[in-house]
Amino acid sequence: MPINDASGVSPSFQVAADLRKRISRGEWKVGERLPGARALADEYGVALTTIVRATDELREQGLVETRRGTGSYVAQAPAVLQWDNDRYVRSASPGAAATDPFDRVDASIWTEAAPEHIARRLKIESGAKVSVVRYVWHVNGQPVQVSTQWEPLALTAGTPIETPVDGTKGNPSVAERFRSIGITVTTIEERTRARMPDADESRALHIGAGIPVVDIERTHLAGDLPVETADIIVRADRIVLTSTHTLQTEGGSDQ
């Protein structure tokens, strides 16, 4: 692949994109060694440092692993989250078994005055006290999702759910937690968009150049009352969103 110097895209990014494509086509199988840096530099007609930067990017994306003294090898396929459109219905069922693929979660919990945009989403006064929990979720040791969740302390203070859960498997869902204090969640709203990550998200999720994120703004409501809102950020190369829609024909049967 010739490097396009007029494209405005850095040579290392172009090389990384082409190597990523070649790996996805199966030119090198999992566990196979990529050609050495000098051989790749000759093939692409670039400096050795360009190849080093390109393979560093692939390593950050979980596509290759570098073994000291022997080179870079194709890694196991990155972890993929598969979310379907009934996941909240299933997780809200009492006693539902956890089905998420996460094998580790790091949680930080604190309280703060609600920023204006969060206050709007929770329909509370700006500056009102909220509990906050930030999770970094891992699959196979790789961070794949960061989520920050806010709950109004006007609803939870002095109750058993005042402190958010730490994300350990078996923790109750948001709906279950609020049900335990007599508040029934009736609706979960989500707004989903794709965008490029900011610097903090790139660091937290080990994202290399050119990888977008899926940004989900979620709110749990009891009737018209928001009881929780969250920003969920997932690496776009680690998630598949699936939906199933049943269409009814006249008479109530499917076609």
Automatic annotation (TrEMBL):
Q: Which GO terms describe its molecular function?
A: DNA binding; DNA-binding transcription factor activity
Q: Name one GO biological process term.
A: negative regulation of DNA-templated transcription
Q: Does the entry feature the keyword Transit peptide, yes or no? A: no
Q: Which UniProt keywords apply?
A: DNA-binding, Transcription, Transcription regulation
Give the matching PROSITE patterns. Answer: HTH_GNTR
Keyword Coiled coil belongs to the record: no
Which ranges carry the HTH gntR-type domain? 9-77
The protein here is known as: GntR family transcriptional regulator
Q: Which organism is it from?
A: Amycolatopsis sacchari
Lineage runs: Bacteria, Bacillati, Actinomycetota, Actinomycetes, Pseudonocardiales
